[in-house]
Fold this sequence. Notes:
The chain is an all-alpha fold. It has helices spanning 12-31, 41-48, 52-58, 62-87, 94-120. α4 runs antiparallel to α5. The radius of gyration is 19 Å and the shape is flat.
Amino acid sequence: MFRFRMKPKPTRQARSQETLKRILDACDSLLKQKTFEQITMQDIASKAGVSVGNLYNRFEDRGALIEHLLLRYQEQFLDEFMRALARRPPSADLAQKLLILAQCLQASIANLRPAFLMLASR
Length: 122
């Protein structure tokens, strides 16, 4: 007799985190293509595959969404910096650590550029 095992259904929290990731990914992608003023909540919702209502349940407006995206960039920067430091021997001198920091900052600034441009236009 064959028994089929069904994959466990993702928890509500896991689905919520995945939806948030899709929303932030969509916003990030759109900011690399258009200016903040050109992006609507409908654009973000469509690209993320969620309803506009779902988007507004999570974020009051585009500004709140951008703030969350900036926090995500900050977390990514810190994670990358810590991984880069971990790849170096513990004896790495300060100059090597500063070089790692500069390289991580350079990569992060490239990601943050659209968001900074949006903030500057306010």
